[in-house]
Amino acid sequence: xxxxxxxxxxxxxxxxxxxxxxxxxxxxxxxxxxxxxxxxxxxxxxxxxxxxxxxxxxxxxxxxxxxxxxxxxxxxxxxxxxxxxxxxxxxxxxxxxxxxxxxxxxxxxxxxxxxxxxxxxxxxxxxxxxxxxxxxxxxxxxxxxxxxxxxxxxxxxxxxxxxxxxxxxxxxxxxxxxxxxxxxxxxxxxxxxxxxxxxxxxxxxxxxxxxxxxxxxxxxxxxxxxxxxxx
Length: 231
Hints:
Low-confidence stretches: none
Number of strands: 5
Distance between the termini: 106 Å
Strand order of the largest sheet: 2-1-5-4-3
Structural class: alpha+beta
């Protein structure tokens, strides 16, 4: 005789209860939200902090590189100023030529120190220095006495009588897009240490790489540029 066991009603409908299924899914979603939300927040905060740290490190690195390049440029300018001063200091030939061409008594040295001889002397010095576009000798009154090339009015230094021109000066460009040029000046001393003229060198855009000698890739992957107030 077969015995049939009747299944309890609550067990028969257990797997098909829609309310229980929706409740389970909601619990799972809330469990994931509550579990992942702190992780998301912590990762976001960590990313923001890491980004700030990296930005500060990059800014500090760029500042250090900029300071190194600025110090290098100052040293280069000082080196070329000293080089020009070394030519002018104790140069009796330049001093005698300046006095002669200014209308003064230059003594025995002034006999041979005419304009042509002065320009040949300046041309030799220009080849030795290799950083200037032009060298010229200017009287204390502001008149050009000799030059290695024709000069335009912008290149000629102008100053009030009795004032000493700056050793290094940037020439103001006539136009906004004009490349920068620089002027270096050294006094030429005559008898008793009196300034009788100024030896002036002009650096144009073509000579700037030689004049500055900025090392390539000083900042590794960073590329730098030297700009004026116009950018």
